[in-house]
Amino acid sequence: MTAARKINPWLKAALEFGPLVLFFLVFSRFRDHAVTLGGREYSGFILATLIFIPVLAASTLALWRLTGRLAPMQIATLVLVVVFGGLSVWLNDPKFFKMKPTIIYLIFAGLLGLSLALRRNWLELVMSEALPMRAEGWRILTLRMALLFLGLAVANELVWRLMSETAWVNFKTFGLPAVMVAFFVLNARLFERYAQPKDP
């Protein structure tokens, strides 16, 4: 497997999180206004989705051109954003875009669960360069991440179905990334315990 080319970490962060921040800013600006495009009226949420789709596609392409690699989650996210975001814009219905995180988290929970059942370390194939660990460590992390993704799928469904649109956007923009960061921080001891011994 070819190693990804290194790029400036600030540029990488801007390309990865910039589209989400832009979505939040556009939604915040237009959430109380209807916008007419092509003779059709759209909510601020749909407008933010319409802008988010091409920006995410451009940033993902830029990451691929700069690093020479995309993570499976980045590819899956782009495909689902285009499909479900496109449906939301086309049908002028925000629920399709709100369902996207649920679907992607269920897909990844299912894949990780399948990898455990088959005794395959698929997570190691994706993350081994960043987190060199022994096989037992990868099995534990795979189980924990499968449960995390399952929990996030349930949380997303509860938030978008039971709470306001603004609450969902805040959850998507700030809550989900914070949960992922907290997950890896809380697993720091696991990474240390099962770390591969360094070459002398």
Automatic annotation (TrEMBL):
Annotated InterPro entries: YciB
Membrane topology label: Multi-pass membrane protein
A Pfam family per the record: IspA
Transmembrane segments: 12-30, 42-64, 71-91, 103-120, 141-162, 174-191
Keyword set, alphabetical order: Cell inner membrane, Cell membrane, Membrane, Transmembrane, Transmembrane helix
Cellular component aspect of the GO annotation: plasma membrane
Domain of life, source organism: Bacteria
Locations listed in the record: Cell inner membrane
HAMAP family: YciB
Similarity section: Belongs to the YciB family.
Purpose of the protein: Plays a role in cell envelope biogenesis, maintenance of cell envelope integrity and membrane homeostasis.
Record's protein name: Inner membrane-spanning protein YciB
Native source organism of the sequence: Paracoccus aminovorans
